UniProtKB/TrEMBL annotation:
Naturally occurring in which organism (per UniProt): Syntrophotalea carbinolica (strain DSM 2380 / NBRC 103641 / GraBd1)
Gene giving rise to this polypeptide: pepN
Ranges of residues in domain Peptidase M1 alanyl aminopeptidase C-terminal: 558-883
Domain of life assignment: Bacteria
Taxonomic lineage from the root: Bacteria, Pseudomonadati, Thermodesulfobacteriota, Desulfuromonadia, Desulfuromonadales
Cofactor section: Zn(2+)
Peptidase M1 membrane alanine aminopeptidase domain: residues covered: 232-442
Catalysis performed (reactions): Release of an N-terminal amino acid, Xaa-|-Yaa- from a peptide, amide or arylamide. Xaa is preferably Ala, but may be most amino acids including Pro (slow action). When a terminal hydrophobic residue is followed by a prolyl residue, the two may be released as an intact Xaa-Pro dipeptide
EC numbers: 3.4.11.2
Family: Belongs to the peptidase M1 family.
Record domain Peptidase M1 alanyl aminopeptidase Ig-like fold: where: 450-554
Record flagged with keyword Nucleotide-binding: no
Descriptive protein name: Aminopeptidase N
Domain called Aminopeptidase N-like N-terminal: residue spans: 121-192
Length: 883
């Protein structure tokens, strides 16, 4: 076992850095083999540090030290020491200049942190702790410095040399080299440093800020992708305008650059003035990207742009505060997208993600608070909890304070902290001070892990015409937190009368007459009762718009859920009622199956679906969402004990039954959609909604395919003029074994083979297919000449899609799926620990499965754990999973 394998970093141990860096000048002499990095930095003792030691420690990993000077004098051997985590300098003065020269090897860098090569270019990734792979440095976010960066490289091969900030100079040098120098005037932490070099081209746009600054916008791409950056560029302009309008926040440099790279561990990175993106979130055109891809690009571009204020201008004091920038920025990008597209669809999309991914995380061994208290490897904490639950907390604040107060709170936050590195507490305090509210109980959302459960019960008293709503909250223990306090939970509710009209929500004792039709109930205690004056027995619409990240249960009858599906004025809750109804029906089916009874469809569901289909032309996008069955991932999370066979079987049979019972409706609604989009291909919410409903109908038609269906599908595939439709058709073909499917995949491959992002889809569609021989299929895909373990997108397309999205396959009773994924976790770990650790997370729920599966999953975890030399990333995930 590695010596440092169990090193835990704790929030309570935070201490300010002993030294601060004011200015850095970096000079890169780029070469695939042996890049030289020369660093000149001015250091001074931090007046706020209480530690008076004369030793300075600088982080550094895989750096070959070539020279070391303090104030121009070489440092003697006895005055420094190196180990695998960095450099110790003994007896340093209080103020001095440090000059270092190191050699790094970007071509061998497969972890994709620090400086690495991708598609013939150089690029960097420094969050969270990648800068220490570039040079010796106090690599922590509370050390903020101004950076000047010179890059020297071969001019032919690397004509474009980029770094943060503004271009200072560029000149030709002997031997075909050139040098370019950049300067970023804004002090920043090292994790926001970036460099790019390559033979790349750009698409350009311009933006003039509210105060008149003209900003050049550039999206850099590989030459063959020219033209595919336009959507990202347009998204950037929209985001810039939106942030000015909604929060009064303007961009602060003259240049904003986005660079697309093919090898990237995450989605994108907000480096100051020089965002580096996974090409998946930049490149798009109708031929290569689906409607969802277009939307995701808009979200990610906006997200990284919004970081310029929430993350860069005000950054995190330490990595426990990660949600300070991520939760807040996700909230901002969600609000932006909601303004751009259909608001309720955006909310449905976000809540789906939260419920499937974050709720699962929060109820398993990897559960952690939005502000974690300890970590071994920070890369393991870029989680749905920090991001998505973090965003939900900010959303609750926004609702509690109201739009105006929230904006004022943010203004106060920026006026207090611009240019500094702060904590989540600083953020909450600014909100509290601006709005003059008491958020002491609300703060628990940041420190307490686990998804709260709310049990709601309703009671109507005919004689007093009072509706009494009892809300009880609780939260199951999570690792390290057995006692849970009650949280402050805003529960938005409406009350519908028997005709489906909303009644004013008036609490008993409320004096005014100005009651709204939606009220936000402040649930603060373990149990609270709210009483309302109503004219008749209401059907309550609860947790409207998903006003808090909780699981709420209410004893709805099927009829009440049907009623809400049709009448609720909150579209989100209409969708949610439909989901609850289907989930209820499926779980009853699972129970019956466990009892040895045969499958049957409950007529109520067919009625509900028929109604949605009949009125679908009113809002096709929403109808499509209502008609999609809840994912297997969502269903397995409904019970503590997971009956995987029951869930997969019942869900499949239900799909077939709905297909059969409503065959004509699926066909005619599909036709109606086609008719209304025949004018061409566009991106309006209506057109996008049409495509999604059309393809949902198609998926039901495929579930009970009639004779001649597959040749038809083949023909549609030939006629399809966009990736959304093509991919929907291909997804259906992936689940069958016939001549049409074979030729379709062969043809798709021919079109895709030179376009990595499209080829990823070709892989992913097959990996996600419900198919009896799926494990063999996955093996073949892994052996395919285009499979590449070094490219995270490709790995995710096959392995993550399978392990996280194809539950029937991954959990095959033989354990073959576990075996395969377990082996690949180990293979990947030697190349890229971030990717292997995230894949290993698919075993974390092992305790909730039946005994056989549970043992097989645990066996894989044990195998990983007992392997020598596994990464710190993987070790932490495995250890916490087994605990
Ligand atoms: N900070 C990035 C974002 O959310 C995510 C990221 C983290 C990218 C770590 C790379 C490495 O916008
Ligand atoms: Zn982010």
């Amino acid at each position: 076992m590695q010596e440092n394998s169990c090193q835990v970093v704790r929030l309570e141990d935070y201490a300010p850095s002993e030294f601060l860096v004011e200015k850095v000048h970096l000079t890169f002499e780029l070469a695939e083999r042996d890049t030289v990095v020369k660093t000149l930095m001015s250091l001074r003792r931090n007046p706020r540090s209480t530690n008076r030691e004369q030793t300075l420690f600088l982080d550094g990993i895989d750096l070959k030290l070539r020279s070391l000077h303090i104030d121009g004098t070489p440092v003697a051997d006895r005055d420094y020491r190196l180990d695998e985590s960095g450099l110790y300098l003994f007896g340093v003065p209080d103020v001095f200049e440090l000059q270092t020269e190191v050699i790094i090897q970007p071509q061998d860098n497969t972890v994709l942190e620090g400086l690495y090569c991708s598609g013939g270019m150089f690029c960097t990734q420094c969050e969270a702790e990648g800068f220490r792979r570039i040079t010796f440095f106090p690599d922590r976010p509370d050390v903020m410095a101004t950076y000047t960066t010179s890059i020297v490289a071969d001019k032919k091969r690397y004509p474009v040399l980029l770094s943060n900030g503004n271009l200072l100079s560029s000149e030709d040098l002997p031997d075909g080299l050139h040098r370019v120098t950049w300067h970023d005037p804004f002090p920043k932490p090292s994790y926001l440093f970036a460099l790019v070099a390559g033979d790349i081209v750009f698409e350009e746009g311009a933006f003039v800020t509210a105060s008149g600054r003209s900003v050049a916008l550039r999206v850099y791409l590989q030459r063959h992708n020219l033209g595919r950056g336009t959507h990202a560029l347009e998204a950037l302009k929209k985001a810039m305008l939106w942030d000015e309008k909604v929060f009064g926040l303007e961009y602060d440099l003259d240049l904003y650059m986005i660079v697309a790279v093919d090898d990237f561990n995450m989605g994108a990175m907000e480096n100051k003035g020089l965002n580096i993106f996974n090409s998946k979130y930049v490149l798009a055109d109708r031929e290569t990207a689906t409607d969802l891809d277009f939307q995701a690009i808009e979200e990610v571009v906006a997200h990284e742009y919004f970081h310029n204020w929430t993350g860069n201008r005000v950054t995190c004091r330490d990595w426990f505060q990660l949600s300070l920038k991520e939760g807040l920025t996700v909230f901002r990008d969600q609000q932006f997208s909601a303004d751009e597209v259909a608001r309720s669809l955006k909310r449905i999309h976000d809540v789906r993600l939260l419920r499937t991914v974050q709720f699962a995380e929060d109820s398993g061994p990897l559960a952690h608070p939005v502000r974690p208290e300890a970590y071994q490897e920070i890369n393991n904490f870029y989680t749905a909890t920090v991001y998505e639950k973090g965003a939900e907390i900010v959303r609750m604040l926004h609702n509690l304070l109201g739009k105006e107060m929230f904006r004022r709170g943010l203004e106060l936050y920026f006026s207090r902290f611009d240019g500094t590195a702060v904590t989540i507490e600083d953020f909450v305090k600014a909100m509290e001070d601006a709005a003059q509210v008491d958020l002491s109980q609300f703060r628990l959302w940041y420190s307490q892990a686990g998804t709260p459960n709310i049990r709601a019960t309703g009671n109507y008293d005919e004689s007093s015409k009072e509706f009494c709503l009892r809300l009880q909250q609780g939260c199951a223990p999570t690792p390290g937190q057995s006692d849970k306090q009650p949280l402050h939970i805003p529960v938005a509710i409406g009350l519908l009368n028997s005709t489906g009209t909303e009644m004013p929500v008036c609490e008993v004792g409320h004096s005014g007459t100005d009651c709204d039709t939606t009220a936000i109930l402040p649930l603060k205690k373990t149990e609270q009762v709210f009483r309302f004056k109503v004219s008749e027995r209401p059907v309550p619409s609860l947790l409207r718009g998903f006003s808090a990240p909780v699981r709420l249960t209410y004893n709805y009858s099927d009829a009440e859920l049907m009623f809400l599906t049709v009448h609720d004025s909150d579209p989100f809750n209409r969708w949610d009622a439909a989901q609850q109804l289907v989930t209820q029906v499926i779980m009853r089916g699972v129970d019956r199956m466990a009892d040895g009874q045969a499958f049957m469809v409950e007529p109520v569901l067919i009625d509900a679906f028929r109604q949605v289909l009949h009125s679908s032309s009113k809002d096709r996008g929403l109808a499509a969402q209502m008609l999609m069955l809840p994912s297997e991932n969502y269903l397995v999370d409904q019970r503590l004990r997971i009956d995987i066979d029951g869930i997969c079987t019942v869900r499949r049979k239900l799909r077939e039954a709905l297909s059969d019972a409503l065959h004509d409706e699926w066909a005619s609604v599909r036709q109606a959609c086609i008719k209304d989009t025949s004018a061409g291909y566009g991106f309006s919410p209506e057109e996008v909604g049409c495509r999604s409903l059309k393809n949902v109908c198609l998926s039901y038609l495929a579930a009970q395919s009639k004779a001649g269906f597959w040749p038809q599908v083949r023909q549609w595939l030939d006629e399809a003029d966009n990736m959304t439709d093509r991919l929907a058709l291909l997804t259906l073909l992936a689940e069958v074994e016939n001549a049409e499917s074979q030729t379709a995949f062969a043809q798709f491959y021919q079109r895709a083979k030179d376009i990595p992002l499209v080829l990823d889809k070709w892989f992913a569609v097959q990996s996600g297919a419900r198919h009896p021989l799926i494990v063999d299929k996955i093996r073949r895909l892994l052996a395919h000449e285009d499979f590449n373990l070094c490219n995270p997108n490709r790995v995710r397309a096959v392995l993550h899609t399978f392990a996280r999205g194809n539950l029937g396959g991954f959990h095959a009773p033989s354990g073959a799926g576990y075996h395969l994924v377990g082996d690949y976790v180990m293979k990947l770990d030697r190349l890229n620990p971030q990717v292997s650790a995230s894949l290993a997370g698919s075993f974390s729920a092992w305790r909730r499965f039946d005994n056989d599966r549970s043992a097989l999953m645990k066996e894989q975890l044990n195998k990983m754990f007992s392997t020598e030399g596994i990464s710190r990333d993987l070790r932490e995930i495995v250890q916490r999973s087994l605990q």
